[in-house]
C-alpha cells in the first residue's frame, strides 16, 4: 500500500514537471479562451452577437480565463458602440436642424437619451474597476449594484430612443438607419449587463 502511494505521488510530481516544461501553446490558449467566451455568451439573449463582439479580444484571455475581465471588456465594447451611435445620431440631427417639426424633436430626444446612456456606461466602467475578482472587497456589493443600476438605465435609454422614433414622426431611410443602430446598441448593452450579472452572481450579488 505504501509503495502504491509513493508511486502515485511520484507520478503526480513528474506530470507537474512535464506540464511546467511544456506550457500550453499560444494556439491552444486562444482555443481555450474562445471556448470560455462562447460558454459565457450562452447566458445572454444574443449569444451570436456576443461572441462576435468579444472574439477580437481572445488574446486578452489566453492567459487567464477571468469573469471579471470578460465583464469589463463587454462594458468597454458597449461604450465604444454607444459613442459611435451617439456620433451618428448627432450628425442626423444636424442635417435635420432646419426642420422645426416633430421629426427633429424625436431625433434630438434620441440624442439626449443616447448621451445619457454614454454617461451611464462611462460610470459603469469606472465603478467596475473597483471590483476584485475574488469578491473580498468590503464594498463589493455597493460597487456591483451601482454598475447594474447604471447598465439598466443605459438599456432603458436605448429602448426609449427606439420607442420615440418608431412612430410616424420619422420616415423612410433615416428612421430605419437610426433604429438599426440603436437596436444594435440595445442588444450589446443587454449582453454587457448579462455578463456582469453572471460575474456578480458568483458572489451572489445580483439585483432582482
UniProtKB/TrEMBL annotation:
Claim: Signal is one of the keywords in the record: yes
Domain Pectinesterase inhibitor stretches: 32-195
Protein keywords: Signal
Name used for this protein in its record: Pectinesterase inhibitor 9-like
Domain of life of the native organism: Eukaryota
Signal peptide coordinates: 1-20
Natural source organism: Salvia divinorum (Maria pastora)
Keyword Heme: no
Pfam families: PMEI
Amino acid at each position: 500500500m505504501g509503495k502504491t502511494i509513493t508511486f502515485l505521488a511520484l507520478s503526480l510530481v513528474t506530470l507537474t514537471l512535464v506540464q511546467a516544461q511544456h506550457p500550453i501553446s499560444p494556439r491552444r490558449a486562444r482555443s481555450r479562451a474562445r471556448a470560455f467566451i462562447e460558454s459565457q455568451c450562452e447566458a445572454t439573449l444574443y449569444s451570436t452577437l456576443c461572441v462576435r463582439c468579444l472574439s477580437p479580444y481572445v488574446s486578452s484571455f489566453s492567459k487567464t480565463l477571468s469573469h471579471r475581465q470578460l465583464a469589463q471588456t463587454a462594458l468597454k465594447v458597449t461604450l465604444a458602440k454607444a459613442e459611435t451611435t451617439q456620433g451618428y445620431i448627432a450628425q442626423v440631427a444636424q442635417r435635420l436642424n432646419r426642420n422645426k417639426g416633430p421629426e427633429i424633436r424625436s431625433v434630438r430626444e434620441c440624442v439626449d437619451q443616447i448621451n445619457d446612456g454614454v454617461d451611464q456606461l462611462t460610470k459603469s466602467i469606472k465603478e467596475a474597476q473597483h471590483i476584485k475578482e475574488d469578491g473580498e472587497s468590503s464594498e463589493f456589493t455597493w460597487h456591483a449594484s451601482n454598475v447594474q443600476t447604471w447598465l439598466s438605465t443605459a438599456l432603458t435609454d436605448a429602448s426609449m430612443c427606439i420607442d420615440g422614433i418608431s412612430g410616424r414622426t420619422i420616415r423612410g431611410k433615416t428612421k430605419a438607419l437610426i433604429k438599426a443602430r440603436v437596436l444594435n446598441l440595445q442588444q450589446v448593452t443587454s449582453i454587457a449587463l448579462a455578463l456582469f450579472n453572471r460575474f456578480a452572481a458568483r458572489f451572489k450579488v445580483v439585483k432582482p
